[in-house]
Design a protein that fits this description.
about 400 residues; mainly alpha; about 0% strand; globular; MFS
Length: about 400
């Protein structure tokens, strides 16, 4: 028997989207910071094994992103969201009791798949929120996401010594709350008139319904360049999640300083993102993304020369500013330059390129670190990112006479 909820679909309120993002980010941030530590320190597996687990998890998440895009465009987004929330909840809840090797890795991969699907679906739902431009929605989501990172890492810092199961109990409660929000608030309509203005009013194309129905997601040169930039950005970002902890230990810093970095990163984003986004919203997407990418890349160049904690903090702050300029703008930019009829696949493309970087990052950094090429590692990601950013700028310059990229 159908409920009134199913009979009366409505528009998605931004506050529920943001609350869902907060819960998802908090729950996730209670898992990823302790993955390597738990696998090596508690399960007594090698660092190579931990890297393989992370790599496969990223690959599974990539596949989940692809599935999420297809489900949003060609199936029932609401049902897909509910099913995905149940998958994540079941995997995390199982980790309370089944957290020995190798079942731990299998459950983590199941959770990774669900999180990949969820990330794409949430981003796709964000393009349907009425009343604000897409870039504002994504900026707000980005701030809330980082509040979740702060809360999650705080919980890990204070509770990990009391046992992994306690962290999973709290994470399970959080994902249960997320599931309830999805069930009660995400059954929304997708009428064309309700879709967020992903294109500025003076840039909207007037297209007939038959033409709209024929639109498909196509990889344009600009999208390819954006995808490559996402790939190298998140490959580089994985260095902070994988090699920076042992690198800082090599420099004589205690492990707690690594946790402090992420706390500072999250607080910086919470405090400054509104100011950064207000500036970014006054400029075309590509200005913010390219500037942010250059700043992000420069942080890895300066990382070659640092050897104290506060120097690393300053470099991480530089990276954070670049991240704030780039990351929340990209999904909104992609939403703007692709037809709304393929919103799910477009956001799936974004998530897949992010996940691809996360797949390659641990492998690449691991090989470089095994050979003792730490500075070469930092220099290489700096050079590649500058080159790709330059190619994106060149691609855009060739389309300067068109309005679709701004």
């Amino acid at each position: 028997m159908q409920t009134n909820l199913a009979d009366k679909p409505r528009q998605l309120n931004e506050k529920w989207l943001l609350l869902g993002t907060l819960l998802s980010s908090t729950g996730n941030s209670m898992i990823w910071p302790v993955m390597t530590l738990y696998i090596t320190g508690v399960l007594n597996q090698s660092f190579t094994t931990a890297g393989v687990v992370l790599m496969i998890g990223a690959m599974v998440s990539l596949f989940g992103s692809f599935v999420g895009g297809k489900l949003f465009d060609h199936w029932r987004p609401y049902v897909a969201m509910v099913m995905t929330s149940i998958i994540i909840l079941a995997a995390v809840a199982s980790l309370i009791f089944f957290n020995k090797w190798p079942l731990f890795a299998i459950l983590i991969w199941i959770a990774n798949f669900g999180m990949g699907v969820e990330q794409t679906l949430v981003n796709s739902f964000a393009t349907t929120v009425p009343g604000q431009k897409t870039r504002v929605i994504f900026n707000n989501m980005y701030i809330v996401l980082n509040i979740g990172v702060v809360l999650g890492t705080l919980a890990v810092g204070y509770l990990f010594d009391y046992g992994f199961s306690l962290l999973m109990i709290i994470s399970t409660a959080i994902y249960f709350g997320l599931m309830l929000i999805i069930i009660t608030k995400f059954n929304v309509s997708f009428d064309a008139d309700d879709i967020t203005d992903v294109v500025a009013n003076n840039e909207k194309e007037q297209v007939s319904k038959p033409e709209m129905a024929r639109k498909k997601f196509k990889l344009t040169p600009v999208l390819i360049a954006i995808g490559a930039l996402l790939f190298i950005t998140y490959l580089s970002y994985m260095l902070w999640e994988t090699v920076m902890a042992p690198h800082m230990k090599t420099l004589g810093m205690p492990t707690r300083n690594y946790a402090d970095l992420w706390m500072i990163n999250g607080i910086t984003i919470i405090v400054l993102q509104k100011f950064v986004s207000n500036w970014a919203n006054k400029h075309p997407y590509h200005v913010s993304v390219i500037l942010g990418s250059v700043i992000f890349a420069l942080s890895f160049f300066f990382l070659i020369f640092v050897n104290t904690f506060w120097q690393i903090v300053l470099v991480f702050e530089l990276l954070t500013i670049g991240e704030m300029l780039q990351s929340p703008q990209v999904p909104a930019w992609v939403a703007q330059i692709t037809p709304k009829e393929v919103a799910g696949q477009a956001q799936g493309f974004v998530s897949m390129m992010i996940s691809s970087g996360r797949v390659v990052g641990p492998i690449y950094s691991g090989v470089m670190m095994d050979h003792g090429w730490t500075n070469t590692l930092f220099l290489s990601v700096f050079i590649v990112m500058i080159i790709i950013t330059g190619l994106l700028a060149l691609t855009l310059s060739r389309r300067v006479d068109k309005n679709s990229v701004t």
